Amino acid sequence: MRPPSPSIPEKEFLFSALKESLRIDGRLPLEMRTPNLTFGSELGWVECALGKTRVLAQIDAKMVKPLPERPFEGILTIHSEISPMASSEYEPGRPSDEEVTITRMLDKVLRRSDALDKESLCILAGQRVWHIRLTLHFLADSGNLLDCACLAGIVALKHFRRPDVEVVGDEVTVHRPTERAPVPLAIHHTPFCFTFAFFPESSSSSTPPVLDPSQLEQRLSAGLVSIALNAQKEICVLQKLGGVPLGTDDILRLVEVAVQKARETHEFVEARLREDWLGRKVEVR
Amino acid sequence: MSVVFPGDYVPAQHVNLKLGPGLLQTSSIKSENTDSNVIATRAGILNHSANRSKWWIESNSRRYVPAAQELVIGSIIQKVGEGFRVDIGAAHPASLDSLAFEGATKRNKPNLKVGCLVYARVSLAHKDMEPELECFDAQTRKSEGFGELKGGFVVRCSLKMCRDLLDPKHFLLPLLGGRFPLEAAVGVNGRVWVSAKETKQTIAIARCIEAADPDGGSLDAEAVKDFLNTLDI
Fold this sequence. Notes:
With about 280 residues, chain A is α+β, with helices and mostly antiparallel strands.
C-alpha cells in the first residue's frame, strides 16, 4: 500500500510556515537535528538517532577467499533492508523506490567512496581476506533515514576493531581479543551525508531549502539533494532527486553549508568515539 | 495498580462484567492456580472501576487499532461511489458514507476533496471488516463538532498522549489556551488537529504536545511551562 499523501491542511500549513522560515519542530531551515550515538558492548555496534529516526549498524568480520579478479582486496558488503518496523509504509520483500535510493546511496557513500582501505584487509594474497559485513537495521523513520544510516554506517566502521592476525609463511594465526588488542580498520576518510529538501516554487515568494528534512517535509518536498563529503571538503557523492531546477550558485551554497556541517559532525563523531574507547577497559597482556 | 503482561490472568469477576481494551475472555481456564478466565492481551497497567465491574488496561502505543465510538481524525484518500475512504492511521482505511453527515440527503451531500481532514466517530469496528465512520452524534444526529477540519495543522503523537489530552484535567491544553486562543480537535488515533491565529503559535502547540508526549520528552506541567517561555510567542 502506498502511504497516503499528507492532507491539504498539513501541506498548506507547512508551506506557509516555511515561507516565514519556520519549521514545525522549531529548527532553523539549515539546522540539523543533533545526532545521538549509542555504542553497544560489542565493537562495531552503533545506534544512531536523528530525532526520532533511528538506525542500528552492526559489523561482523570473517575470513573468506578473495574474489579472483581482486586477489589483494578485502570485501565490504552492506546489508540494508527497511522492514515495516521503521514505518507502516514499508513492506517486507518488495523494496520501495525510497528504499532502492537509500541502498544505492549507502553503497556509493560507504563502499564506492573508498572510505575503507580494502587492501589492508588482505591477509594472504589470493587466499585469505577479511570480509567486512555491515548490517543496517532501520528502527524508526521520522524523516531523513539516509543521513542517519550513512552516519551509523561510517561510525560503526570506525568503531569496529577486527582481531589481529599474524602471518608466518603460509600459516595464519588469528589472535583472540584476550591475547592481542584488536586492530581498527584502516579508514581513508570519513564521508558524511547531508540531505536538503526543496519545495515547489510559488510565484509570490520563494521557500528556502531545508537541511535534514523531517518525514512530513520529505514527503512534501519537490526535490532532494544529498551531498556526501568529508571534513576535508572532498565531495564523494552529489545526488539530486526531483525536478526542481537549481542554479550553480544554489548548489555551491548548499556545498558550503554541507562542508560546515561535515566539520562539526566529524568533530562530534571523533569525540564520541574517543569517549567510548576510553570508557572501555581493554587489557593487553 | 498492577502491571500485567500479555497472557497474564486477570482476576476480573463480576455478574455484569465489562472488559475494556487489552483484555480477552477465554473459553476455558487453562491454569490451575486461578479461577479467572480473563487474560491480558497487552502489557500495561491494569485498572478497574470502583465496583470492579469494568476492567481495562492502560498502555502506550503508536499504531491505532479502531474501536467503536472513538473519536478519530482522518484524511480522505479516495472518493468511492456514495462515500469516501479515509485514512485514520489504522491497518486498513475506514469508510465514511456521504450520508453520515448532519443534514446530508441524497441531493445535499458534503463536498470533500481528496486530502481533506475530517473529525469523525468510529461507528463500526469489527476485526473482520473495514471500520466505518460517522460525522454526527448518534443521539442528536447533529454535527456536534464533527465534520471537515479546515486550516490548522495536524500534530502526530502517541496514543497515550492523545487520550491524556482528552482528559479535561490534563494540564496542557488549558495552559496553552491561557496564553493565546486556539482550537483543537483530539482524535484518539494519535492525531491532534490544532489551529491558532499565528503560525508561530501553532508550531508552539505542536512542539509542546511533542514535549509532553510520554513517547517523546514526557515533560510535566512545570517543565512544559518553562519550555513554552523559551519559545518566542
